[in-house]
Amino acid sequence: MRLLVTGGAGFIGSNFIHYALAHTDHHVTVLDKLTYAGNLESLMGLPSDRFNFVQGDIVDAALVDELVGVADAVVHYAAESHNDNSLRDPRPFLDTNIVGTYTLIEAARRHGNRFHHISTDEVYGDLELDDPARFTESTPYNPSSPYSSTKAGSDLLVRAWVRSFDLQATISNCSNNYGPYQHVEKFIPRQITNVIDGIRPKLYGEGKNVRDWIHADDHSSAVLTILEKGLIGETYLIGADGEKNNKDVVELILTEMGQQPDAYDHVVDRPGHDLRYAIDSTKLRTELDWAPQYQDFEAGLGATIQWYRDNQSWWRPQKAATEAKYKEQGQ
Ligand code: NAD
Ligand code: TDX
């Protein structure tokens, strides 16, 4: 298949492209605007006969129409993705996440393409810490932040285009990813690179908030499975049973990096901070026969720490500006 992958220079998109080129015969064209979050170095060394890169905006209808027209399937990762940024300036989230998704699904319906929409568990809001429940495909939408509300809006557009226009689409909502090529603004890379730079890790509030961690390669294998076997119009939740609170994750990073486990600072909490996310991925596992490969979070985290140690030239250009922005917020 000829895949058009939007947002392929970002964290999860670039991991997907490396994974898809290694595990399938697909050809990949990337459409990416190269915002602050996109990095072409994440796509170095890919086979030039099976991969090409186009710099452009997913709200550019003419460009999108041209690229969708020559693809068999679209895998849509491009988004403004960071909650903290969405609290400072929501506007780009509306443009890219809502209008960008609209532009892509209009082109996909005109050309009759297979479309896979990448989304997040944050559309469901949050769970109490002591609630045994987990999110399922039928949990009502209840997003908390400007980021998650624009992702929820984009999911609803895709659902409506399936029902009204027969868009050949599937949707996946995945939990928090970790792995290589993640921007240093995000929790795990921020703390790893802080420790490398001799800065104490920064924990929002008390650090009781729980995230359900999955390795980016497991997200990629799930998306390929859905592309191959998913039923049109269906939503699949992707998760690997990786619930951990933030305090435990910071302590693991510090211990793994040879520091005292309490060598971190508590900083100003995120406004509206979601308490807990947890995914029940039974549907994907039983109906499409998918299973995650990374069962050991500590081993995956250790490999991720090593990647940031070995690839300082990849993240260092963003580090100082990212920390300066956090400092303004007392974080
Ligand atoms: P990211 O911020 O690392 O990458 C986003 C990419 O999209 C960047 O390369 C950026 O340049 C590109 N982009 C942004 N606006 C664009 C536009 N208007 N036109 C074209 N390209 C544009 O994000 P990520 O963490 O890799 O997330 C990718 C997708 O996965 C998002 O849709 C996100 O909602 C979803 N998701 C992320 C996670 C997670 O843990 N990071 C979990 C579940 C779902
Ligand atoms: O310095 C920090 N200290 C801290 O305690 C940062 C950056 C974060 N945190 C906390 C906030 C969250 O509880 O860590 C947790 C994870 O934070 P982020 O990495 O910002 O991720 P989150 O807000 O959970 O959202 C992520 O997962 C779902 C992605 O950024 C989203 O794109 C995805 O949809």
Automatic annotation (TrEMBL):
The keyword Lyase applies. NCBIfam families: dTDP_gluc_dehyt. It comes from Sinomonas puerhi. This is dTDP-glucose 4,6-dehydratase. It is an enzyme of class 4 (lyase). It holds the Pfam family GDP_Man_Dehyd. The keyword Repeat does not apply. One of its GO terms (biological process) is nucleotide-sugar metabolic process. Its cofactor is NAD(+). InterPro entries: dTDP_Gluc_deHydtase, NAD(P)-bd_dom, NAD(P)-bd_dom_sf. Residues 4-295 form the NAD(P)-binding domain. The gene is rfbB. It catalyses: dTDP-alpha-D-glucose = dTDP-4-dehydro-6-deoxy-alpha-D-glucose + H2O. SUPFAM superfamilies: NAD(P)-binding Rossmann-fold domains (SSF51735). Keywords: Lyase, NAD. It comes from the Bacteria. Signal peptide: none annotated. GO terms for molecular function: dTDP-glucose 4,6-dehydratase activity. PANTHER family: DTDP-D-GLUCOSE 4,6-DEHYDRATASE-RELATED. Its EC number is 4.2.1.46.
